[in-house]
Amino acid sequence: MSEILYPLTSEVTLVTSFQDADPMGVIYHGNYFRFFEEARRILMEKIQYGYLAMNDSGYMWPIIDTRVKYVKAIPFNHEIRVTAHLTEWENRLRVDYVIYDGKTDQRMCKAHTTQVAVEKVTEEMCFVSPTVFTDKVQQWHLHGKL
């Protein structure tokens, strides 16, 4: 019997705020990262490796690269659905995102962020993700939960 692998994904529904909009009434491009962050937070909590657990494990995970493709402007007071999918974890943490219109399901944005582990004590970047993280991802992929 072959292994069943469960993809590690998360989803959050949000309503955009007036304070996130630019003078034209659409969400300022820099504020999209707050939406990505919320979906990533939920994703990492699924494997019990949220921000407090990261800190307690002795690692920081700074973002070293991002890519965003803005497909359609998002107005304020608009419902959106943000998905996050863990696509790399062995040597770095890469999360792919899609923002959908909450009513029509039309794709409005796609993006990814890349993070690396940095040891808190030495402040040295790790070239391989620490096992405290990869073990949790592997367990999720095999069982769909921790």
TrEMBL record:
<protein>
    <submittedName>
        <fullName>Acyl-CoA thioesterase</fullName>
    </submittedName>
</protein>
<dbReference type="InterPro" id="IPR029069">
    <property type="entry name" value="HotDog_dom_sf"/>
</dbReference>
<comment type="similarity">
    <text>Belongs to the 4-hydroxybenzoyl-CoA thioesterase family.</text>
</comment>
<dbReference type="InterPro" id="IPR050563">
    <property type="entry name" value="4-hydroxybenzoyl-CoA_TE"/>
</dbReference>
<dbReference type="GO" id="GO:0047617">
    <property type="term" value="F:fatty acyl-CoA hydrolase activity"/>
</dbReference>
<dbReference type="Pfam" id="PF13279">
    <property type="entry name" value="4HBT_2"/>
</dbReference>
<keyword id="KW-0378">Hydrolase</keyword>
